[in-house]
Specification:
It contains 11 helices and 17 strands. The chain is of the alpha/beta class. It folds into 2 domains: about 130 residues, Lyase, Ornithine Decarboxylase, Chain A, domain 1, CATH 2.40.37; about 230 residues, Alanine racemase (TIM Barrel, Alpha-Beta Barrel).
Length: about 400
């Protein structure tokens, strides 16, 4: 793989690991903490999800909130994705600048700053789609788009039980559907439905029961819209935790799975398929270094709160430490490893790799992906879609 231009974050500061690209054994030489992407596992996940969606008659529009990388979005497109989902206008800006197409902003676009940014994006790519979940938001968008002489494709965002965004009842969905279908600035394209609350229910059967029950509301909304003559050619949603269940419902035309590209501690604990086999491989890690080893059966690492997401389980040790080693947070910059068997100290400066606890917000703490094959660093990709807006 050819060397790529690395991120210029930090006032023009390049990645401290750029000089290691291509060198034998360079995976163990990284300046840490470093976000490490195992390309063999990552590429297998890309191919596997694309094949699954193709075999089950759904398009794949993966969610870039997971990786925040225009390069990964382009790779997903090469593997059959029809477009990309983003959570923020900032992520959309990065994708448009990189030439990524088929963009859907999955969170409502509200407020003057975000709507102004949306208008600017539509000038560069008029095919961008957004979601709307209230008549008030629709009215504000109508006014702003009319002033700019722009139109935008919209999906009606529905809520089947998460209570975060989306219309929560059939009557509200039908009224908003009529409002969108009657607008000359908002072009109705379909419906979005995502239930984040079920994605990490560990057991397949329990998750399927809860989720399929929720989707009866989506089905009622779609039937009601159809009776009013409002056709929904796109029904998008689902996630990594439900990609194996969505075909059973027969409602979705496309999948928004995102974490499948990396996997993490949370999803590794989820029975993704009915047979219990894990069809996806763990591809993302944080590499840390032992910076203190004064105690038997314990070592201090240089990765703490600032290197891992804090909203889920703790990271899991994958390589570089004795079997059964446990990690615990020990401060902003520090993590503690402990193990019960043997009294051997980990070598000062040795490297330990840990599975990310929750991949999306962990990625958001880093500037670069350090892409490896085996023991060799082969490329560095910037996390170039981070930021506010």
């Amino acid at each position: 793989m050819a060397r790529r231009r690395v991120s210029q974050r930090g006032g023009g500061r390049p990645s401290p690991n750029t000089g290691l690209i291509g060198k034998a054994g360079s995976r163990e030489l990284l300046a840490t903490p470093a976000l490490v992407l195992d390309l063999d596992a990552f590429e297998a996940n890309l191919r596997g999800m694309a094949r699954y969606c193709r075999e089950h008659g759904r398009a794949l529009r993966p969610h870039a909130k997971t990786h925040k990388s225009t390069h990964i979005a382009a790779l997903q497109a090469r593997n059959g994705a029809v477009g990309i989902c983003v959570a923020t206008v900032r992520e959309a800006q990065a994708m448009v600048e990189a030439g990524v197409r088929g963009i859907l902003i999955t969170s409502p676009v509200a407020g003057p700053a975000k709507m102004d940014a949306l208008v600017a994006l539509l000038e560069r790519d008029p095919r961008i789609m957004i979601v709307v979940d209230s008549a008030d938001n629709a009215r504000q968008l109508d006014v702003r788009l009319r002033a700019a002489r722009r139109t935008v494709g919209v999906l009606l965002d529905v809520d089947v039980g998460m209570h975060r965004t989306g219309v929560p009842d059939v009557r509200g969905a039908l009224l908003l559907g009529q409002r969108l279908a009657g607008s000359d600035r908002l072009e109705f394209r379909g419906v979005q439905c995502y239930s984040g609350m079920v994605q990490h229910i560990a057991g397949y059967r329990e998750r399927a029961i809860v989720y399929l029950s929720q989707l009866t509301l989506l089905e009622s909304m779609l039937e009601g819209l159809a009776r009013q003559g409002i056709r929904a050619p796109i029904v998008t949603g689902g996630g990594t935790g439900t990609f194996h269940i969505d075909p059973r419902a027969g409602l979705f035309t496309e999948s928004q799975a995102g974490s499948y590209v990396f996997m993490d501690v949370q999803y590794n604990d989820v029975q993704l398929s009915q047979r219990g086999a894990l069809p996806l491989r763990t591809a993302l890690f944080v590499q840390s270094m032992v910076l203190s080893n004064n105690h038997r059966r314990a070592a201090t690492l240089d990765a703490g709160f600032k290197s891992f997401a804090m909203d889920g389980p703790v990271p899991e040790v994958r390589r570089g430490a004795p079997r059964g080693t446990r990690f615990q947070f020990y401060g902003d910059e520090f993590g503690m490893l402990t193990w019960s068997r043997g009294a051997t100290r980990l070598r000062l400066g040795s490297k330990v790799e840990l599975v990310t606890p929750h991949c999306d917000p962990t990625v958001n703490l880093h500037d670069w992906y350090h892409c490896v094959r085996g023991d060799r660093l082969v490329d560095i990709w910037p996390v170039d879609a981070r930021g506010s807006l």
